[in-house]
Amino acid sequence: MHLLAVLFCALATLLSATTAVGYQLIDEQSYGFPIHNPFQATIAGSPVELQPQLIGNEQIKQKDYQLRLRPEREQSLPSNFWPVKTLHYRLAKQKKPAPLIFIIAGTGARYDSDKAEYLKKLFYGAGMHVVQISSPTSYDFMAAASHYATPGYSPLDAQELYYVMQTIARKHKNLPVTDWFLTGYSLGGLHAAFISEIDQQQQFFNFKRTLLLNPPVNLYTSVNNLDQMANVELPELYEGHDFYQDVFDKLARYFEKRGHFNFDQAILADFQNSPERFTDAEMAMLIGTMFRFTATDINFTTDLINRRGLIIPTGTRITDGTSLTPYFEIALLCDFSCYIREQLLPFWQNVFQAGELEDLIQQTSLYAVSEHLRTNKNISVMHNQDDFILGAGDLTFLEQVFQDRLILYPYGGHLGNLDYVKNADDILEFFHD
């Protein structure tokens, strides 16, 4: 059976899931999100006319700051890594006392990614101070903030994020904060769950509300799903024809007919109604490939910082004039699953005297903090039934653990409906409840 068929079987299973007592399943008929294909929703996002009205950047009092957390890297990293030798973050301040919300970015994303920027505008417009923080899987966090620079072990990633958050809070101790909030999207949602447990123990922030947006449940399942999407079979391509060339050819023919090039969300919807439309397999592969590039960044950066010799030979001197292309080509051969096997698992076993892969999977997933999530009524999760990062049993886990604190939307793929007006209203309602 082709992977695409397997994916759609999984989606069908998710869509037919029965409603557990208490959790909020948004009715398909009343939910107006118009894109019912999970891959297209993930790529396109919400149509502009169905997005909330947001405050403009010119109306936001904001500034990028930096923290010098790993001064030893200033000498050990090549000089052309100077932009990431300090950790940057963004703070948007209100003019009066207000709640402050931390936003944790998703897989490989920096603090200033599009989704973090969208959430900043949403929360700032609702009267909150906002702090945006890069993901521990981003090259800047790995280089400038992480002690081990080997992301993927959620408890350690959360501890490093929590330290960064504490450092930011102390640096801006005169900022009048009335309450502390926390959110994260995708992998950042998983990290937010672990951070919440740490804070419950240390009580530095005492978060009043924590919201997880489309988090993975079993991290290993999610990365395997994404790895497989990057390797979808495309039988319609003839031998020797390149996938990306086929995609570009389709776009070229489409825009030649239109007479101009302008590829935005509205155009994608029109493109998908044209004879040149992307197939589901092509869209799945596009999404998987983007995540594959993220895995490449992680593989390369962690090998460079730790001098493991898996990608860059031991003893190789990297200078401003060194071409990194050969090393990226090697790193590109190793997907997320490969990274876990070759770098994360050996690191985890060595540093923590830990067990086998099955133990790592358990400790890096929401299972590890399930009791905290079950009993802390200030934590909620929003997810989509057709999100392809979920695996068998993941929705049941969310239903049982969160109950009425789970809002489940019928469509949206992976974060494709994050900027839909209904979702925006639900997000703000949770923090204002």
From TrEMBL:
Gene3D superfamilies: alpha/beta hydrolase. SUPFAM superfamilies: alpha/beta-Hydrolases (SSF53474). Keywords: Kinase, Serine/threonine-protein kinase, Signal, Transferase. Residues 1-22 form the signal peptide. It comes from the Bacteria. InterPro entries: AB_hydrolase_fold, MlaA. GO terms for molecular function: protein serine/threonine kinase activity. PANTHER family: AB HYDROLASE-1 DOMAIN-CONTAINING PROTEIN, LIPOPROTEIN VACJ-RELATED. This is Serine/threonine protein kinase. It comes from Thiopseudomonas acetoxidans.
